[in-house]
Amino acid sequence: MISSYLQQLTQLLNQIPRRYTTDNLKEMYGLIDAYDTILLELEADTTYETLVADYFDTLDTIRAATKKSTDNKASKKQKDDYFDAAATTFKNSVTDLMAIVQ
Questions:
Q1: At 2, is the pLDDT very low, low, confident or very high (cuts 50, 70, 90)?
Q2: Who contacts 15 (Cβ-Cβ below 8 Å, separation ≥6)?
Q3: Mean of pLDDT over the chain
Q4: How many CA within 13 A on the CB side of residue 94?
Q5: Considering the entire predicted model, what is its pTM?
Q6: What ranges do the domains of the chain cover?
Q7: Any idea which fold 2-101 has?
């Protein structure tokens, strides 16, 4: 099961887009949902239960930054910056979690 988590996280990490586009935004939301599912599965496992709690807070931060990148009042540069911040935080979070489930 552990290798399954690691495999899923590696797949997620490799799919996280870097630039804001409508297609990348849709993909990002799908990846965020997949990450949420993985975190819930890990939380249900007594081995990881206490170790993953902080990752849900980070997930909320990623969601908020991704949502900001859709603000119609934001310039293209601002949207790119918000999306880039979300993607970077997402990658860092997944990478950190991979170290725990190895």
A1: low
A2: 27, 31
A3: 93
A4: 26
A5: 0.92
A6: 2-101
A7: Four Helix Bundle (Hemerythrin (Met), subunit A) (1.20.120)
